[in-house]
Write a structure and sequence with these properties.
β6 (142-146), α5 and β7 (181-185) form a beta-alpha-beta unit. The protein is globular, with a radius of gyration of 16 Å. It has helices at 19-28, 51-60, 74-81, 107-115, 163-174, 190-199, 218-228; strands at residues 6-10, 33-39, 65-70, 89-93, 119-124, 142-146, 181-185, 203-206. It has a single domain (6-228), classed as TIM Barrel (Alpha-Beta Barrel), CATH 3.20.20.70. Helices cover 30% and strands 18% of the residues. By secondary structure, it is α/β, with parallel strands linked by helices.
Amino acid sequence: MIYKNKLSVSVMCADLLNLESDIRFLEKMGVDMLHIDVMDAHFVPNLTFGHDFIKAMQKKTTLPLDSHFMVTDPELAMERLGFLRPGDGFTAHAELKDESGQYRSYEALSQKVHGMGAFFGLGLSPDTPPDALERNLGFIDVVLLMLVYPGFAGSKMVPGIMDKVARTRQWLDRHGREDVEIIVDGAVSPEGARDMAAMGASIFVGGTAGIYRKGMALEETIPYFRKIIGQEL
């Protein structure tokens, strides 16, 4: 992975009726990735973007698409999506379990994603400990830490959740996966991103708290966020 101190902008917070125009502007402003939340109204209580939406975006931008699948069947989601471009990402959730009640193995899905040149990750909801990653530790490139309870944009950060960034970084390092990067997602402000970078996070999902901030234009929020996380402007 080479995504150190990168900004991934949440598409869910953009102007969806003028999304192509928004994407062109985000490209111009130097964002690193576009974050796509895929929800099935089952794993989380919301229904958002699907496979056709991602495919359409793949045709419109060369920016990597960092897709976060909050779904009960990520293997089926990958099958319907069909392909990923080199540099894209596919993140499922660690909480899903198999028929025996054990955390599901993602070895086959990870191999499929890696075979396309994309990166594979697992997400952890706020109450899920890093131990949930253990079965799949050899198959992942990133861990996505939810700082809010998943499902809706604009939610408030869970109190004390930023400490989980440091705990997860320490857990990964103790288990020999210093190379696995941490994505933080949910109510990520520039100031919070700075603190979490010091704790070991390296990819920051910018939504309503960081990029689409009330009373501020993207011309202000994006350069400020990029400067805070240490990017050269």
